[in-house]
Amino acid sequence: MMAAQPGDLLRQWSSITGVAALAIAGEVLIASAMRDLGDLDNHRTGPGLKGFLGPVKAVLSNGKFLIGASCMAFNFFAMLWALSIVDLSLAAPAIASLTYIGNAICAKLVLGENVDQRRWLAVLFVCVGVILIAH
Fold first, then answer.
1. Is residue 113 situated within a structural domain?
2. Is residue 88 assigned to a domain?
3. Spatial separation of the C-alpha atoms in residues 85 and 8, rounded to whole Å
4. What is the distance of C-alpha 134 from the center of its chain?
5. 4 occurs within a structural domain
6. 4: CB partners within 8 A, 6+ apart
7. pLDDT tens-digit series, residues 22-34
C-alpha cells in the first residue's frame, strides 16, 4: 500500500473515530437503559416462556435501549466502511482502543461510575498504544 496522503489520513481517522463513537454511544445508552430497568426478573409475568416475554417486552419498549441498539447496528456498517479504507492492522486496534477510552470517560461522566486510578492508568496505556499503532 502506498503512503497515505494528508486527506487520506483525515478520512481514515474520521472513519475510525466515527466507528468508535457509535460503539461508545450504543454501549452507554444500553447500559443506562438496563440500569433504568433494573433486575429483569422483576419484569417476569409468570413461569416458563410466558414469564420470559415480560423482560423482553420491557427491554424492547425502552427508548434508550432502542437508540443504543440502533447505534450498535450503525456501528457495524460503519466498521465495514472503515475496513474498506483502512488497514485492518490499524483499524481494529485503534477502534477497540478508542472505544475502551471513550467507555471509561463516559462511565465516569455520563453513568456516574466510580472509575478508579488503576482503570485511568490502563486508559493512559491504551492511549500510548493508539499513538504507537498510528505511527
1. yes
2. yes
3. 9
4. 20
5. no
6. 12
7. 999 999 999 999 9
